[in-house]
Specification:
Blueprint (H helix, E strand, L loop, with lengths): L4 E6 L4 H17 L4 E6 L4 H6 L7 E6 L2 E7 L4 H8 L5
Parallel strand pairs: 1-2
Antiparallel strand pairs: 1-3, 3-4
């Protein structure tokens, strides 16, 4: 069983993205290696942003076994993210 992946689609010029970063960092400390976290700068990785249909930053996508489980636009709090990720951790 693979671990879930949390994609954090952001842009350096985005104020709400800067608010999301410490939330993601806190979550990474809590969940450790159980979840893979990938930060994706939409300006540098337009191909990935297009593949996932990113229209708003920040956008968080949770993927498990190559399938999108959840997509969240805007700043998402740590408790919500943890609640969504915990059941996916093997």
């Amino acid at each position: 069983m693979t671990r879930p992946v949390l994609y954090d689609f952001f842009a350096t010029w985005c104020g709400p993205c800067r608010m999301q970063t410490p939330i993601i960092e806190e979550l990474a400390k809590k969940l450790g290696d159980a979840v893979e976290i990938k930060k994706v700068d939409v300006d540098e990785h337009m191909d990935l942003a297009e593949k996932y249909g990113i229209r708003v930053v920040p956008t968080l996508i949770i993927e498990k076994d190559g399938k999108v489980v959840q997509t969240m636009e805007g700043v998402t709090d740590a408790a919500t993210l943890e609640k969504l990720l915990r059941p996916l951790v093997g």
